[in-house]
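FORM 12-B: Structure-to-Sequence Request
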């Protein structure tokens, strides 16, 4: 399927909506962590298990579900995963015991894992090689819109309805509608074909693929962890933001939507390692700016962080699948690294916040980004597509 094919436009829109629904469901509870932690009398680190549970579910599910995706079909796995994630998300609106909330989030992570391992593999299997980075970047753009929209919906609805349970329930219903539309639009997949890894080969290919996994781990540990800590910083002095205001911080994801949708085009002219290092530097610069004790600098720092992170993610994700003989296996390993990073980051950055405030969060994040930049400069492949 290439540009000009009758189903190409439908596929692009369907993948965009898949990203919106999946990540919207995943991140809807994040701006509510301060309210939830107060209700359950939890520390920031303990409350962050509501985020770590879903990413742990993804990490546990990606490898077995990646293998199942190759046998059962990418499209079927996407639909089934979205259904499970939606049901688990809706249950958050009625469950009250803390252990039940954490368990529901873990189950939701399994559903999300089914989508994540299948979506990029579907792109690699069904889209012409020259268009993989472009369509894959649009899917990543959808994930940024979903991550941003889910958070904003839950925060605004919680403030409007006066209950975080109702906020999550109503947000889940809206995201379920988006997922249903994605299912209707997704074209039927062509039969899977044996593939030969194009472009980079041999030991260099293996090393490059592993570096994509390292970028996923480091980048997501920083992004997930920093945004968790950002919710607590927003609620604390001197900002004293309510849940609706905290949810607006995630509008910074809009910068990632832009960079992830553009990176596929830029990568045709600029070496991949240059893009990675420039994007990681942008994220580190944003964290430095956020140290200025003003609301404008806090927001600008998050914008720069998201712009850089999603540029890296939009390039590394399809590259990992492309450099694998079995795209679902490459996508599964990439998502394993990505969500293990999210699980680790959610806890250690919350712990850094508890121990040393925002300054400790920034120092830790810059260390992760520096490691990622060195690896990308040495081992990232020159081309993306």
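FORM 12-B RESPONSE
SEQUENCE OUT:
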């Amino acid at each position: 399927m290439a540009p000009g094919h009758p189903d190409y436009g439908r596929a692009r829109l369907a993948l965009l909506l898949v990203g919106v629904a999946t990540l919207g469901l995943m991140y809807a509870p994040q701006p509510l962590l301060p309210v939830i932690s107060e209700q359950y009398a939890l520390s920031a680190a303990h409350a962050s298990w509501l985020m770590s549970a879903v990413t742990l579910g993804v990490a546990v599910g990606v490898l077995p579900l990646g293998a199942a995706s190759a046998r059962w079909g990418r499209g079927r796995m996407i639909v089934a995963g979205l259904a499970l994630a939606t049901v688990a998300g809706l249950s958050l609106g009625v469950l009250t015991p803390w252990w039940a909330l954490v368990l529901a989030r873990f189950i939701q992570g399994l559903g999300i894992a089914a989508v994540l391992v299948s979506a990029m593999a579907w792109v690699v299997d069904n889209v012409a090689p020259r268009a993989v980075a472009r369509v894959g970047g649009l899917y990543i753009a959808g994930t940024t819109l979903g991550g941003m929209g889910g958070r904003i919906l839950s925060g605004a609805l919680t403030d409007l309805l006066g209950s975080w349970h109702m906020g999550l329930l109503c947000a889940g219903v809206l995201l379920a509608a988006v997922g249903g539309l994605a299912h209707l639009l997704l074209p039927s997949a062509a039969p899977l074909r044996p593939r030969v890894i194009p472009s980079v080969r041999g030991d260099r290919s293996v090393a490059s693929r592993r570096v994509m996994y390292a970028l996923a781990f480091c980048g997501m540990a920083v992004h997930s962890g920093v945004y968790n800590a950002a919710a607590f910083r927003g609620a604390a002095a001197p900002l004293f933001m309510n849940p609706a205001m905290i949810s607006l911080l995630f509008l910074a994801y809009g910068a990632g939507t832009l960079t992830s949708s553009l990176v596929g085009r830029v990568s045709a002219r600029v070496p991949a390692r240059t893009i990675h290092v420039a994007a990681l530097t942008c994220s580190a610069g944003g964290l430095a700016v956020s140290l200025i004790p003003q609301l404008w600098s806090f927001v600008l720092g998050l914008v720069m962080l998201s712009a850089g992170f999603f540029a890296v993610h939009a390039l590394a994700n399809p590259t990992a699948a492309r450099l694998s003989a079995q795209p679902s296996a490459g996508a599964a390993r990439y998502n394993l690294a990505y969500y293990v990073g999210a699980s680790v980051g959610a806890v250690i950055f919350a712990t850094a916040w508890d121990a040393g405030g925002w300054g400790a969060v920034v120092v830790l994040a810059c260390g992760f980004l520096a490691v990622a930049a060195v690896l990308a400069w040495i081992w990232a492949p020159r081309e993306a597509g």
